[in-house]
Amino acid sequence: MSRNFMRHVYGWLLLTPAVVLLISFTHYPTVATIIDSLFSKGTAIRPSRFVGLANYEMMIEDPIFWKVLINNAWFAAGTIPTSIILAIIMALLVNRSLPGRSLVRMAYFTPTILPMIAVANIWLFFYSPDIGLIDQVAGFFGIAGHNWLGDPATVLPAIIVMTIWKEAGFFMIFYLAALQNIPPELEEAARLEGSTRWYYFRRILFPLLMPTTLFVMINAVLNSFKLVDHLFVLTKGGPDNASNLLLYYIFENAFSYFDTNYAATLTVVLLGLLAVMALMQFYFLDKRVHYR
């Protein structure tokens, strides 16, 4: 009896550091954010008071919130599938024997290790009207320059392209590791059976990559809702909120307008959206991942 008790105590002592960190930096901030969302904005002469769901009603009536939410949906739809497809293609390429394979892998992965502010400044050089690299190349072919980040029609696609460039190499690493764990005998057997490369990829290789795809997809969804640095350097959410995304709108309310309670309300919505999407991914991809 004493030995079992000491074993339980020893186990909980081992778990205590992780539990303390999890509660301090995950559960407590979440609960505190939900509580803050139920209070009004406090000032020096009017303290914050309990208002219930008034902040959520204000959010529903906020046209900028809906515009930002639609922007984020388009941003996620543009970055998630494209980044995953490019990551798989790049992993397949560098998993084969080719000259300078290590250099190619490094070239694919290099954008990932660059600081976000540096990436934003690099692409600012590309997108600058008239003097930017894109307009310089276009001018060589007689095409007029364009203000890529100042036009509401092109600013969000421009940021999507930059995000894909940075993320695809990161996701490639996971696919490359998964490919190297797949026995080469499977491909040899498929060739003996007369299977084409596309059939082998669709029916054998890609199903084996589903656990990695689930992991990458969850990370891609999270990344699509946490872009702040690039927007801060490139557009500040403009023009006319055409490039504003949900997390940057939260940042604006908290640190520009000092309305931390409304920012907490938006944060609760963001956490709810991420939780729902993560659960949907687990629900729809679970059978494919575990082959049931």
Topology:
Blueprint lengths: L1 H35 L17 H7 L2 H32 L6 H13 L2 H12 L5 H8 L14 H26 L4 H8 L4 H12 L1 H15 L4 H6 L11 H11 L3 H31 L2
Helix pairs in contact: 1-13, 3-7, 3-10, 4-7, 7-10, 10-13, 12-13
Give me a quick take on this structure:
This protein has 292 residues and is mostly helical. It is built from 13 helices and no strands.
Q: How would you describe this structure to a colleague?
A:
The chain is mainly α. It has one domain: MetI-like fold (Orthogonal Bundle). Helix content is 74%, strand content 0%. It has 13 helices and no strands. The chain has helices at residues 2-36, 54-60, 63-94, 101-113, 116-127, 133-140, 155-180, 185-192, 197-208, 210-224, 229-234, 246-256, 260-290. The longest helix has 35 residues, at 2-36. The mean pLDDT is 89.
Keywords:
292 residues, single chain, mainly alpha, MetI-like fold, 13 helices, 74% helix
CATH class descriptor: Mainly Alpha
Q: State the total count of DSSP E strands.
A: 0
Indicate how many domains the architecture comprises: 1
Q: What is the number of helical segments per DSSP (H or I, 4+ residues)?
A: 13
User: What is the gyration radius calculated from CA atoms?
Assistant: 24 Å
Shape: flat
What percentage of residues falls in helices of 4 or more residues?
over 70%
Q: Could you give the distance between the termini?
A: 41 Å
By CATH, the topology is MetI-like fold
Overall structural class, as computed from helix and strand content, comes to: mainly alpha
Low-confidence stretches: none
